[in-house]
Amino acid sequence: MSWAEPVTRKGWTLLAAVLGSSIVFLDSTVVNVALPRIGQELPAMLFGVLEGQSYIYNGYLLTLSALLILAGALSDYYGRRRMFIVGLLGFGVTSAACGLAPNVEALVLMRVLQGAMGAMLIPGSLAIIRSAFEGEEQGRAFGLWSGASAGTTILGPFVGGLLVDTLSWRVAFLMNVPLVAIALWAAVRHVRESRDEEATGSFDWLGAAVVALGVGGLAFGTIYGQQREWQDRLAFVALGVGTVATVAFPFLMRRAAHPLVPLSLFRSRNFTVTNLSTLVIYGSLYVNFYYMPLFLHGTLGYSAAAGGLAGVPASLLLALFSARSGALAARYGPRWFMAVGPVLMSLGVFWLSRLPADSQPWLLRPSDPASMVPPMSYVVDVLPAMLMFGVGLMLVVAPLTTALMTSVPAHQAGLASSINNAISRVGPQIVGAIVFVAITSSFYQGLSARVPGLDQSQPDVRHQISPLNPPPEGTPPQLAAAAREASADAFHLAMKVGASLLVVGGLINGLGIRKQEPLNQPTAARVVP
Fold this sequence. Notes:
The protein has 21 helices and two strands. The two termini are 15 Å apart. It has helices at residues 7-27, 35-41, 49-66, 68-78, 80-99, 104-119, 121-132, 135-166, 171-174, 176-190, 205-227, 233-255, 269-299, 304-309, 312-332, 335-352, 376-381, 383-405, 413-450, 459-464, 477-512; strands spanning 193-194, 527-528. Helix 3 (49-66) runs parallel beside helix 6, helix 8 packs across helix 18 (383-405) and helix 15 (312-332) runs parallel beside helix 18 (383-405).
């Protein structure tokens, strides 16, 4: 299909899809840096400060992860445009409610609902692109989608830091409303309806309940377990329920007359390999994106805005060149892009494992123009890592999306996208939980080695001196210095684990991905004008 006559429709369709998914990814990161200010300014009736902050952040991620596969199946069954518009309306309303929340409890409730609405937008946006574009144009469109989505994820902490420092934490939520309005207008006016025309039976609500229980149980168990340092039995119960539901799910799908997830999807080699590499690569990304801001801000003393700005070079490379790498992957095949990209990313992550504990902080303040200039320690210790990481990310993100979306028939595009997105969210949480145990153990072992006779069983030590966080005021200088050095050791371990996972992901892609023709099937995924 040429861009000549339908350029306006195609452009608005792409804009709607990109905006719809980007606000979901942005809200998963931009709120992080706003949590301390929310805890200071917003009253709470039922939750403590730290508990409320945790629910604000994780409540969103929990419903988003648990409902992704259900949302993708609903989009294929009832229509991608229809469900996308419902998701946009819901996300806009809940974002406004979050920004106007009178207390912590109301904000937690709205964040849970906001995550549920966001689950409708991610798989629907990719399926809409799949239906509107073909061939190399499709690869370029996937590249733009991937670049914008990943770029907003990386830029989220910086944007959030600026909003919190200059305006209010409420703007972090309210800024979604005009973005939703633009995407909604474009979707209503220009996006064509498409659905799975082979879905003629009843919807598999039992399968939807089981998969939501499985994904939600695993997500909640890992999140809650980390919060409670694996001292609460509820985390293990949730993990057990999630594991049982996940194991039972394929047997249920085999027996269902109209299964929510047809097992025939996994007969596609590229679909299976892409999801496996997604688990490993996004596990590394979770470790890197979680621990790097903590180390820069909590241990080295970077300001909130500077900690977010540190990752901007990688996001710029992704935003500028992701469309090109997506088009090249569509033309030549995604295999070598997906193999080389993670290896380059691993070099950048490994570079961060040499970041010293006495590295000079970047104290960027909006009111001080001179503070915009980064210190030499950032130029030497962080910037090269971000550039290497960004080049690798640019090579892998769009080709991975292209490989995924061309590995299945078009009528299953929404479901395929939702499965991959669920893996990219729950899998990394599990990887992060394992790494959390290793990081915590490394930190307290290093602290004991540097401060002989320290009794870690004392509540004050375990609750006030924690990995990658600044010790409270009044901490003895020897203990504060030891905590800083132990945090650096723990951070180095996390980066080495992240780099190793990326190498494994590159090997999986290099050995497993095969070039194939795009599986466009307009008769199966009929586009309705």
